[in-house]
Amino acid sequence: MNHEKMWRVVKIIWTVVVYLFAAIGFGLVVTYFAVRFGFTNTTGIIDLQRETFLGNATSTTAVTQAPEYPNGTPWQNTEEWQVLSAAATTDAPAINRAAAIADIKPRLLVEDLIVEQLRLFFTERAFYKKFFAPLKILGSQTQFSWGVMGMKEATAVQVENNLKDSASPYYLGSQYEHLLDFAPVNPANASSTISEQRFTRMTNSHDHYYNYLYASLYLKELETQWQNAGFPIDNRPDILATLYNIGFEHSTPNANPQVGGAQITVNGVDYSFGGLAFQFYDSGLLLDVFPK
After folding, report:
1. Which letter does DSSP use for residue 229 in this model?
2. Which long-range contacts (CB under 8 A, 24 or more apart) does 178-182 make?
């Protein structure tokens, strides 16, 4: 091949590479702004389950707590659980670190992680078979919700804001105020840059620490709200899991909270988010790693 032909081949390969990376970059930018402005939001069963928790749902929308099984629950005997338990154990240092900073029991954080991941494992079967199972890793979301804990951006923003608002019923104290501070940004473009930093934090598939820290502080803020209202729930992992799922806007302290949340189907069995979370919390699973 003479130099002219070789040069043409190199130019073609280079052009293909440039266009390929441009297409990937464009796709990432579109995904980011779609999530940022809520274009990917959909109305789903979670809305019905919020009504169930609040006691306003009809009998056709109600979802019961997870059923009882005297010999263990079906999800404990699946390959998916074996993959998930191994992945959660691998992440134990980051989980324990985040929980310690927020001053909550790590198992309260893990019960929500278990439900989010089981839901993902059974709904995203192609990804589960190709990545999660062979590599024994957790699934990190980047669209409707973010990261391994499935937190929405609006929830993450409120967690941040609650840390600094001393008048908020969720306020944890001055020692927590700067835990989620961002790196300095250009004042002319501060909002966009902070949003990008948040997105990077929450969707980092190689380091889940911020996922766990946001979730831990979220749980601590919910605990604090109910404690301030005179209805402590620090000994109610089932209610905390339900609140984690249904959100700040539906957290209304009262004397008789009910377990509920989104319907989660695992291996053909339907559970409520809070009920399934409590099944893990109350079980003997991973007690040596995440004690009660």
Report:
1. T
2. 179/101, 179/213, 179/217, 180/213, 180/214, 180/217
Global pTM reads 0.76
- Write out the chain's pLDDT in tens, 292 residues: 555 666 665 566 666 555 555 554 544 444 444 444 444 333 333 333 334 444 443 322 333 344 444 445 789 888 999 999 999 999 999 999 999 999 999 999 999 999 999 999 988 878 778 778 887 788 888 777 899 999 999 999 999 999 999 999 999 999 999 999 998 877 766 656 899 999 999 999 899 999 999 999 999 999 999 999 999 999 999 999 999 999 999 999 999 999 999 999 998 899 999 999 999 999 999 999 999 9
* Neighbouring-strand partners of residue 270: 265
Statement to judge: residues 78 and 103 lie in one domain? yes
Domain range for 272 is 44-282
Domain assignment present for residue 191? The answer is yes
